[in-house]
């Protein structure tokens, strides 16, 4: 088994990805999996593993490909980094250290400044959905809608990821399934950027996402038995 993999889902442009890759320590680069999710202009990524989707599958679909490749390559832990560099590279990579005592590590935007940098309507929606999930699963986490996250791959491998959404709801399905199965969580503070390079979903899609989260909280997706193998992602 190898140590740490880094999965980077991307859907253009090139400049934020270049900046992000320049910030990843050289020792970690053999474990970096960049997933170009059908960008209009194919992305370049030198010195790392590049996975190309011939068409756009979605944010969740890109993660599925990256996690499957990391597990197949024999890595033990994985960190998710957004290709638009919304989350700071080094603090997000440091989430892997929390996996010494946990199986899931989340970078929370609410632990440092109360999430005040998040646009107000997103902040309150995040708070409300996280609160409902905490009530449902008996947890006490400050944020369940962060894109800064790390996992032990053996724990992630027990989930039927191929049956999860290829869209943004994938994130909540993963965390709800892990909470429902009793996974150990840890949190660390992170900050995030909200500038022109950051790819944010529209208000309409955010409402759809929120309604989907309510369904997931009420009925979290099932988990596979520990003896089952990782499900290979399928196109939809």
Structural summary, described in words:
It is a single chain. This protein is an alpha/beta fold and 236 residues long. The chain contains eight helices and seven strands, in the order βαββαβαβααβααβα. A seven-stranded mixed beta sheet has the order 3-2-1-4-6-5-7. Helix 5 (120-137) runs parallel beside helix 8 and helix 7 (169-180) runs parallel beside helix 8. It is globular and about 45 Å long.
Quick take:
It contains 8 helices and 7 strands; from the N terminus they run βαββαβαβααβααβα.
Which secondary structure elements does this structure contain, and how are they paired or packed?
Blueprint: E1 2-10, H1 14-23, E2 32-37, E3 49-53, H2 59-72, E4 75-80, H3 89-93, E5 104-108, H4 110-113, H5 120-137, E6 149-152, H6 153-156, H7 169-180, E7 185-189, H8 203-218
Parallel strand pairs: 1-2, 1-4, 2-3, 5-7
Antiparallel strand pairs: 4-6, 5-6
Helix pairs in contact: 5-8, 7-8
Got a strand count?
Answer: 7
Oligomer: single chain
Number of domains: 1
By CATH, the topology is Spore Coat Polysaccharide Biosynthesis Protein SpsA, Chain A
Strand-residue proportion: 15-25%
